[in-house]
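Here is one chain, start to finish.
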Amino acid sequence: MKPLKKLEDKIRKQMNFSAAPMLRSELLSNVLDEQEMIAKNKSAQHMPNIRRQIMKNTITRYVAAAVVVVAVLGLVKLIDGDSTSGVVWADVLTKVKASRGIIYRDWRTDVDDTSTDVSDYEISYLTPTQYRSEGFREGKPWMSMFDNRETRKRVVLVHFQKGYVLEDMKLTEQGNQKHANYQNPSWWVEMLMSCEYIKLKSKVIDGVLCEGIETTDLALASKDGPMVDRLVAQLWVSVETGYPVMFQGKFYGENSIKTTFDQFQWNVELGSSVFEPKIPEGYEQM
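Its structure:
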């Protein structure tokens, strides 16, 4: 019989065994239950000695050895909660940048989660050239915004005042469209992943198993971002799809604010009709 070390190395090369994080606690519990059951059973010395019978067959003993090695490797995975990540972080940015369109929820409060004077939340639609947001307050439409980033034209519907605004989109000193980055979760993902960050323990968000990273690097807000004294930002990505599930940042400064993007739909086809503003009858220009 080949030495166990050589057999183990061979199995490692041929098999990639890892338990999904959601199964770890259940599997470990099963292992402990089996251990307790064995302890309660009869002593092994009174049981038939089948080891000699099994080892007579070469194929059978290799299979048995493989089962033992895989079980050991699997148990190591169970015990080691910080084992190899299910998220390929190098691919995350590539996926979000290639997304044709994004639908997501955007909501902001102060860092203590108390309400601000803006909408309770916004449902946003984004492509590389178009942006639309629908703001709600107390469950009712509050404000709608339509940005055409090719023509640099904006239409704002102020529902609570039954009015509308037509304006040119403002540019920053660098020639970029003002505030456009703030509204783009892909930009936040890119900025966070360019910062120094740490990996977080996996958790379930809205029924989705996620792995996360966190940064306190002020570089996150140094380019077209808010002026802050300190910050804490997290990005959570689905283990299954590799797409972000939530981005959340707390920015502390003169105007401390908490920003959250969640409820994502990535890589969706958004037709032009989604971005055509329709001014309701009776709305007056402001």
